[in-house]
């Protein structure tokens, strides 16, 4: 997703494992994101990603490093006044949809609750370390992504995949309710639940309104139907010459222009809520 720090007018925080992430460099925060990860420890584990629970451990380590760097009083202020932007969960549900074993083990409702319970526990862990301001971003409109269209309805690329959309919307509804419950129970906390799903749907069905080409179900990279991640590289045949004309960069990710529009739909409200 487009760098959250940029929207807050801050420099991009260093990755947690960067050799430069030490000393005064970490006073601006830390980035614990891991591409392809989810809240659940087994999501995309084969790819070597860092699950959300481990990322939370890293944030707690960062909180402690501030104490060592500036003292407990100043560290407490930094930790409590910093916004914590959380964007996890999409990959958990994608893995469920692609894994018959998980579908046999859990119903959709059970799996949604498993993810949300893990998220709630992790957010409480951050709170116990002094965090108070949380920006929780919804799951995105995964059923509109070119990859979902290719796998589930290749002959209808003008409609989002309904069963995926319904599942993701259901998760978002329960995820939002969980954050509202946390704000009620965690004294002094502030939560903003950012809706990234709705603007993504609008972009898909009304691309010309935003300056995108009409054939929105085709991505820029390669054939635009299935390539993503490392499959999008200098050798990818067929890649477009103007990514800004496309809503999707690859089959599973928006272009930078797409991200800017989606984030722009909620960023001011998020800032006003958390930084007021």
TrEMBL record:
InterPro entries: GDSL, GDSL_lipolytic_enzyme, SGNH_hydro_sf. Belongs to the 'GDSL' lipolytic enzyme family. This is Esterase. It comes from Riccia sorocarpa.
